[in-house]
Amino acid sequence: MKLIYEGKAKRLYETEEPNEVLMEFKDDATAFNGAKKASFADKGRINKTLSVLLYEMLENEGVPTHFLRDHGENSIIVRRVEIVQIELVMRNIVAGSLAKRTGLPEGQKLRQPIIETYYKDDQLGDPLVTDEHIRELNLARPDELEKIKRSGLKVNNILTRFFGKAGLTLVDFKLEYGRLFPNKHNIVLADEISPDTCRLWDAATGAKMDKDLFRQDLGDLITGYSEILTRVQNALAS
Ligand code: UDP
Question: 174 C-alpha to center of ligand 1: Å?
């Protein structure tokens, strides 16, 4: 299989179908723009399984995604897209860079969800960008940006409600979007949705169960991720 791209946590391979791509979830984890690295046995499988369950749920709720089908332990088949070079961050509760940037206390509930856009550029350290920056950099057309933000709000509503049922608080998360091949007219949700890209706290105790376990050396990452997966599966079955 021909490798198309290798990122920090995933690999993309060509398939026989020109408009389908195999996405493999790695066990590697990085933080602080790659400065901190480690590998966790089983992380790829857990993140793949969670992404599949969440993508299926979003598709059922009318959110178009790149997901096509499950493909073995660590991989899925997705539609080929050109990734929009923007990271959309949705926030419900103050944490991470929002606490640092604003001085608001971690854990404070936001009056309404905050949408942020970051320029996906490792060399620049993924800076926060405004709509005008996005226009000037040609990262997305205004109509595409509007679609992306509207989709982000919808995804936030669906996931907040669902994780709530699973006894988890969705603090914030990152989404990426892509333009569907071959004509690149349609924007769909792409990348992954997993504890690598979402902050999830235990609804009862506030304990962190996501990648902050690794970022902040708070405890065993796989224990947190496995518990999230079990709760998600139980919530789906109930
Ligand atoms: N996030 C991500 N990839 C990134 C940056 C952030 O998945 O490159 C996610 C992160 O897991 C969190 C949310 O986006 O759920 C907001 O992250 P924040 O801006 O607070 O940055 P951090 O504190 O992770 O540096």
Answer: 6
